[in-house]
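dumping this here so i dont lose it
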């Protein structure tokens, strides 16, 4: 892919596009919002498949257990959205993180992504939105490097470049995968967490005013978030629901939801820092979120 082709691929898409979502849905409470937002943005986004990503924290006993729980949670959200038809196109992903930067972890999700991506081209790419550890996407690129020219990757991962480290959950779980993706030659849009997307958050009053009682989906999302953060009448809290922003980049016509720039790729290192080179390929880097505009669009679509 030439430099001009790469820069063109990094533009916010116009017209209706095909999208797949790679998600660690059971990790906490924000992936569920992103899944529903994608499905409810069908005026532009044609969702083709969902991939369950591995994760390992207090909500799982292993990366494999996290992936299995995410697969089950995906099916729950699809049902709440009235989109049981998409369960057939929901795939289990990697059961471990990459063992190194050369060996893919094969799964149903990885095989589907490779097969699906090969039906696209530089002029008509498949948009791959990833909101968890990026193991599935990296494995697909290792299995078939040629798909790098047929996809555009939108990843919520890492922290802002001005942050003191890159030790963000999606990135530090599988640094090898992040390095594979960033060196693959594929067009990459990065939405950093702390320092940028952390500004996109909701509060208990927001959820109770705008979502509770609207429909079963809204009730689930609101109550799941409130239960996660803790009911309180004397404590102020805001919960980042950052995963939504990766989907929102695809809808960012005229910069209505976020500001971004073309810059050189900053390569993730195993010591949880970036390395910089002016010889590195270009990427798209998001540096500001318009929280009010995006929350308005999100809530309005969830209540449909």
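and the seq i came up w/
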């Amino acid at each position: 892919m030439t430099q001009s082709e790469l820069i063109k691929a990094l533009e916010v898409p116009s017209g209706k596009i095909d999208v797949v979502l790679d998600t660690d849905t059971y990790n906490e409470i924000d992936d569920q919002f992103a899944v529903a937002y994608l499905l409810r943005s069908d005026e532009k986004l044609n969702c083709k498949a969902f991939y369950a990503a591995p994760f390992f924290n207090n909500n799982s006993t292993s990366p494999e257990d996290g992936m299995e729980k995410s697969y089950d949670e995906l099916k729950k959200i699809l049902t709440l959205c009235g989109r049981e038809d998409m369960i057939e196109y929901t795939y289990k992903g990697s059961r471990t993180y990459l063992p190194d930067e050369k060996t893919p972890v094969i799964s149903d999700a990885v095989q589907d992504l490779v097969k699906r991506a090969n039906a696209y081209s530089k002029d008509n790419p498949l948009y791959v939105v990833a909101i968890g550890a990026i193991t599935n996407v990296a494995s697909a690129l290792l299995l078939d490097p040629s798909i790098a020219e047929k996809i555009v990757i939108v990843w919520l991962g890492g922290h802002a470049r001005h942050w003191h480290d890159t030790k963000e959950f999606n990135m530090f779980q599988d640094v090898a995968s992040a390095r594979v993706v960033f060196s693959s030659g594929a067009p990459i849009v990065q939405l950093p967490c702390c320092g940028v997307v952390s500004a996109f958050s909701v509060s208990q009053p927001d959820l109770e005013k705008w979502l509770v009682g609207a429909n079963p989906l809204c009730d689930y999302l609101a109550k799941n978030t409130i239960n996660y953060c803790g009911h309180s009448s004397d404590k102020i809290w805001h919960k980042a629901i950052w995963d939504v922003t990766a989907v929102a980049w695809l809808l960012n016509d005229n910069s209505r939801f976020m500001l971004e720039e073309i810059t050189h790729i900053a390569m993730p290192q195993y010591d949880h820092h970036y390395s910089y080179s002016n010889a590195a390929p270009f990427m798209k880097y998001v540096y500001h979120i318009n929280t009010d505009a995006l929350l308005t669009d999100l809530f309005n679509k969830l209540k449909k």
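The domain at 3-302 is CATH 3.90.245.10 (Inosine-uridine Nucleoside N-ribohydrolase; Chain A).
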